[in-house]
Amino acid sequence: MLTPVLMTLILVLPYLVCRAVLRDRRQETLPAVAAASTGLLFLFTASGHFIQTGPMVQMLPSWVPARELLVYATGVLEIAIAMALLFQRSRRAGAWAAAAVLVAFFPANVYAALQHVPMGGHAWGPVHLLVRAPLQLFILWWIWSMVLQSPTTPSAAPTPARAARGTAAEGST
After folding, report:
1. 15-61 per-position pLDDT tens digit
2. Where are any strands of DSSP class E within 65-120?
3. Do 53 and 71 contact (CB within 8 A), yes or no?
4. Is 90 exceeded by the pLDDT of residue 151?
């Protein structure tokens, strides 16, 4: 049951450390840190697709074709999402993709818990869903509020309103 704790720490700890260090200075970097920590989380979860491929395959019903290939492909997808979250230009698309993947992959977590798959707490059975479902909702909330709801451009960038204020301030001196 260590995996949900690790996932939460990977997601939240870089943000909290950055927030504590920055205090009131450069608050516009916090959404980028939140996106980067989400990217780190996706790199962590992607690693399971390559390190624990066997148990990941067991998370899928036997009727799913090419389960091992699908596990590898979704691992590559999670790496692509992580990379997209790291760059401002692709961050919004990466965040939407991350949210979609969390929703789309959740049924595999339910199946794994019902089948007691020996990976990431699923061996506990349906009880694991009492941890996993709220964690999944928290990650979705994080993506929505910390990444998608933040401005896509840093607040230090010139905007028409800021430029007008700057011109007015120059004229008054």
Report:
1. 999 888 877 666 678 889 999 999 999 999 999 999 999 999 999 99
2. none
3. yes
4. no
**Residues in contact with 58: Cβ distance below 8 Å, sequence separation at least 6, in sequence order:** 112, 115, 117, 118, 119
- Nearest alpha-carbon partner for 114 in 105, 123, 102, 101: 123
Distance CA 54, CA 58 (A): 6
Q: What b-and-e string marks burial along 116-128, b requiring 16 or more CB atoms within 10 Å of the CB?
A: ebeebbbeeeeeb
CB of 102 closer than 8 Å to CB of 136: yes
Helix (H, G, I), strand (E, B) or coil at 118: coil
Domain spans, the chain: 2-172
pLDDT digits (tens, 9 = 90+) for 7-22: 999 999 999 998 888 7
